[in-house]
Amino acid sequence: xxxxxxxxxxxxxxxxxxxxxxxxxxxxxxxxxxxxxxxxxxxxxxxxxxxxxxxxxxxxxxxxxxxxxxxxxxxxxxxxxxxxxxxxxxxxxxxxxxxxxxxxxxxxxxxxxxxxxxxxxxxxxxxxxxxxxxxxxxxxxxxxxxxxxxxxxxxxxxxxxxxxxxxxxxxxxxxxxxxxxxxxxxxxxxxxxxxxxxxxxxxxxxxxxxxxxxxxxxxxxxxxxxxxxxxxxxxxxxxxxxxxxxxxxxxxxxxxxxxxxxxxxxxxxxxxxxxxxxxxxxxxxxxxxxxxxxxxxxxxxxxxxxxxxxxxxxxxxxxxxxxxxxxxxxxxxxxxxxxxxxxxxxxxxxxxxxxxxxxxxxxxxxxxxxxxxxxxxxxxxxxxxxxxxxxxxxxxxxxxxxxxxxxxxxxxxxxxxxxxxxxxxxxxxxxxxxxxxxxxxxxxxxxxxxxxxxxxxxxxxxxxxxxxxxxxxxxxxxxxxxxxxxxxxxxxxxxxxxxxxxxxxxxxxxxxxxxxxxxxxxxxxxxxxxxxxxxxxxxxxxxxxxxxxxxxxxxxxxxxxxxxxxxxxxxxxxxxxxxxxxxxxxxxxxxxxxxxxxxxxxxxxxxxxxxxxxxxxxxxxxxxxxxxxxxxxxxxxxxxxx
Length: 642
Description:
The protein is an alpha+beta fold. The strands form ten sheets. Strands 11-10-7-33 form a four-stranded antiparallel beta sheet, with no helix packed on it. Strands 12-13-15-16 form a four-stranded antiparallel beta sheet, with no helix packed on it. A four-stranded antiparallel beta sheet has the order 17-18-19-20, with no helix packed on it.
């Protein structure tokens, strides 16, 4: 009989569960009920009891805001346009360096009870004062253009960051130039950089937008001079320039020689150069433009002289490409749960560290939703977790502003279906679970849906043809080979064909229309075997075994390559990676991570080369080549089940 996981429980207090408080779900019976934990530390020698309440800060803010709304104990009135806003100097000063300087310095406002605030929109000021008292801000298309300038003036950094994150997500070819100018005006450097790169990557569409026609000349030159401009045809760059000039020929034709210095005429075809460029009246009317064309003709007609004619206009552009990258998240290493995260870039075949999670997580569920990486639940080495973190590759940062699941879960399966995140099964330290919850990013809430027919910890999940599959795992007694799938249209689970082998802590992923299930552990040992499910025939068939036994293995597809990552072979934790070759039906070793990982999660994100994680912004310097322990890890007595 298989034991439930008690390996991480403190020796004196038994199983613990750390619950993250989430007040937004208070009124929904199907959602997470609010609760508060109080960490109690007892010093037996000194007979002390120290309490830290995590509801105190919320209670304090709520009551300060109530005092503000009831106009009690307010010691300043802000006059913004026709609005009079009562507030407390201490609260404003604590949230805004602008107000702190105003109220604590020698300015006249420090002695006034009514203060006129200029250059800030009335509605934006109301939103920011509300944020100071509630820590909550809603940014949308209607308010962002007034909210960001106001937040910049008041130096409320968190709101500035939120506005910039919102604008990043709104980028498209029709607005990226406007967002770039807006970011430049308000000194939002990260947003400016990302808008610049977005413009270069999508220039073929940007040049067709109305915003492009009204670009200032300096910005136009910045764009077309970039080596990273994503244009395969220099003819199209020339046509874009002439389109910009034609919008106001009389005013703009004087700038044509200066602009065309950055068009790479030698890389055009001879036919286009002669028939289109040379015959253009604006080109023929300017000597500098004609000289540029003659230079290009010489380059094309004298190939033996090209080595001596190299320069910026003969250099081919190297446009930014998008690529899929793999993330290995958390797990068990060196006898403890870890928070480390590393990224595999297939263009360089290198693993390197990125920002770690805020919590150590083993048995964590990982999935990608809206190109953001979610880490759900797990075990931190002491407690079972219900908290959730989210990673943004554009900023290389984890955020904790995601609602927690209703119960603590480790060995949980997580997948994405219909734009929502699903947390499936797992265990909470007391029992094995068949519970399933759905997270909707638009409402930022988890809701329970129909439970599975079988309790499953160490379950693997996958989405194929609109169904959510729960594969194998353990029911708390023994490993399973059964499989069931969820139909979101009927909100029901139904069984499908079982695997040929019982597997818990297996890896699974959809590849070429099949669900692949690899590794895991049966009743006796760790497994290297693999099989795949055909949804058309409702049958499982064997696939060649991996080179290593792998329990707690991650499985993912990166740039159409199926990869098995890490795990445990029965003797040691693994950092090796295997690549499946479908043509030869074989597994090949493909390097290894920097950290050994058992029970970590994996996720694949599509990134541009200008994203922070690829450019090294906020990366963990020096950590990519260091493993915490390259010896075989023998701390297996602590680990009964993930």
